[in-house]
């Protein structure tokens, strides 16, 4: 069985706000010195695939795939250090910003090249834009069934048994192969930490780099033909704070003056 996990590199969401930069003219986030990390929900997807393989006693091949620049290699190295069998980078260096529809189109072209595939896993959403659309767009592009908010997948012959989260709790669905699932975080699929030896071995593995044009995709044509998202503006909100000290000799006097101040400001 062949399982493919889609990984998205994002700017580390834990960086200090003071270090966060954007280019308002081009409407892009400036990476600067910030690290790229794997989208956390994609890490949950990879962990779900690894657990599937363990329950199947190794009868599953796992491929990690990502769209990004050369700086995205590190997240694929991490996937290899977690014992993914292979990793592939789709290079979008110098390409226009990809929306979710264009991303799905490119991934679909690459996945057809990787066929046969039994299961494709994506994170439920990205940790930067929180769109949650790529998995569904990808299913539509490939005409495959798709289950969302999945946390565990088991194999039942030619079908998958998927445990998915709903507003009312959990439900179990049976899905035929091939299929796509978007994975949510759960206490059962917390990403594991790679072993030192596996991390060292990962750096010895070759990661093929595919060019988008080689996949037969014209990104500009895809974006012009299907405008799924139009970003009007991007900016960092400015927060202005003012502080006033309430004078007084004792607490009661300060409380009375604070009450008068709040009434002047029409807060109470």
List low-confidence stretches. none
Structural class estimated from helices and strands? alpha/beta
Order of helices and strands: EEEEEHEHEHEHEEEEHEHH
- Overall number of strands: 13
Shape: globular
For this structure, what is the CATH homologous superfamily?
HUPs
CATH overall fold name: Rossmann fold
Instruction: Give the N-terminus to C-terminus distance in angstroms.
Output: 65 Å
Examine the secondary-structure arrangement and name the CATH architecture. 3-Layer(aba) Sandwich
Counted by DSSP, the helix tally is 7
CATH domain class name: Alpha Beta
Rounded average pLDDT: 89
Helix percent band: 25-40%
Number of domains: 1
Fraction of residues in β-strands: 25-35%
């Amino acid at each position: 069985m062949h399982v493919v996990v889609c990984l998205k590199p994002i700017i580390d969401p834990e960086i200090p706000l003071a270090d966060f930069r954007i280019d308002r003219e081009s409407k892009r986030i400036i990476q600067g010195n910030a690290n790229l990390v794997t989208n956390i929900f994609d890490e949950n997807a990879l962990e779900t695939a690894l657990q599937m393989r363990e329950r199947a006693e190794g009868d599953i091949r796992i491929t990690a795939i990502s769209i990004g620049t050369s700086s995205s290699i590190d997240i694929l190295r991490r996937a290899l250090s977690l014992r993914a069998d292979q990793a592939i980078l789709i290079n979008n260096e110098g390409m226009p910003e990809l929306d979710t529809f264009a991303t799905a189109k490119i991934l679909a072209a690459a996945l057809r090249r990787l066929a046969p595939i039994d299961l494709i896993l994506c994170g439920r959403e990205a940790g930067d834009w929180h769109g949650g659309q790529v998995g569904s767009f990808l299913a539509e592009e490939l005409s495959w069934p798709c289950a969302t908010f999945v946390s565990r997948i088991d194999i039942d012959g030619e079908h998958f048994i998927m445990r998915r989260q709903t507003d009312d709790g959990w439900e179990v669905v049976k899905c035929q192969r091939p299929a796509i699932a978007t994975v949510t975080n759960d206490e059962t699929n917390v990403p594991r930490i790679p072993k030192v030896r596996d991390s060292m071995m990962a750096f010895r593995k070759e990661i093929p780099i595919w060019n988008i044009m080689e996949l037969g995709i014209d990104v500009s044509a895809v974006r012009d033909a299907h405008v799924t998202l139009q970003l009007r503006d991007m900016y960092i909100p400015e927060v202005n704070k003012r502080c006033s000290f309430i004078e007084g000799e004792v607490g009661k006097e300060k409380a009375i003056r604070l009450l008068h101040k709040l009434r002047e400001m029409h807060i109470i």
